[in-house]
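Need tokens for this chain, all 367 residues.
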Amino acid sequence: MTPSCTWDRALAWRLGRHLLDPVGPAGTTPADVVRRLGAVLALDTGLAEQAVAARRTAGAPGDLAAARAEGSVVTVFSFRGSLHLATPEDVGVHLALRAAGRQWERRSWVEHYGLRAEDWPAFRAAVRGALAAGPLTVGELGAAVTAHAAYRHLRPVFDDGAGTLLKPLCWQGDLWIAPTSPDGRPRFELPELNPRWGGVPDLEDAGPRAVLDFVRDYGPVTTDHVHHWLGGGLSAGRARLDRWWTGLADELAAVEVEGTPAHVARDDLDALLGCEPSDAVRLLPGHDQWVMGVGTADEHVVPPALREAVTRKAGLVVRGGVVRGTTVRRGGALEVSWWDDGPRPDDAIGEEAARLGLEVGFSDRSR
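Here are the structure tokens for all 367 residues:
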């Protein structure tokens, strides 16, 4: 008989895995947080800092920037082609999945960039050679690469920023985003210059590991969750994901969560079933991994009435693992809108705000 649990217990278990209840203990580093979440959206540096800070009991402004400067956290193009923070030891697993679609071989790419599939090994070598001496801005990288006659036609592409062209190079492990230059310009660097770099593993090694890591950190999950994060996020391919999922049968355990068939890692099952519900209140930034990992369409985490606001990057008031309210910055304070029918936990919200060094106010839209 399949064991069962309630959603409040399932979300309490996931809160623990996300270092949200309990919050990561003293000594938890930004790299520890990023590694646990698998990836942290990095388009907005401020939101990324908030996501990491929410999961640490002790820290200081600038800790995330320091982690990037020392190389324990890196920035890559990965999920949905967007910028994400990752750890250099583990990021290659997701890059392998993202590269599996081989978008650079599509006719539209070949025609637009004038690079055939057989041209890419030499092109990649030219990029790596240019970065071998250290980080370069996109302009500097473009100047070095287009000095080769074979790539002179790409000069206008680099002049325009070359963002789309550079993404497949990141997926294949040829570059990632370096800390900005002293004058604030974005730069790229060679991953292998970071001693922590784990490389890009073989796809058939990376796939099962990516699936199991996701189950461990976001479980209990359904196969729809897996396809959302690794399929929709990394274009890994439905058939591949289904095959990897089937191959992990001995590593996974089925559990029914209020009638919904789901899975956790087999060695986490007993701890999940013994987990007590959580009443923890957490203030999280917009597009936090708490909602992005399982998707804003998951009604057990994001009530339908709040989905549009959460998708549009509203800040989150999470209680017991469920988004109960939203926040928006007004000047130097967070304005809280409470959307739940239950009483608003003003004391708990205030305590959480104080822990994070924030000021809060309450909107008349609260109910």
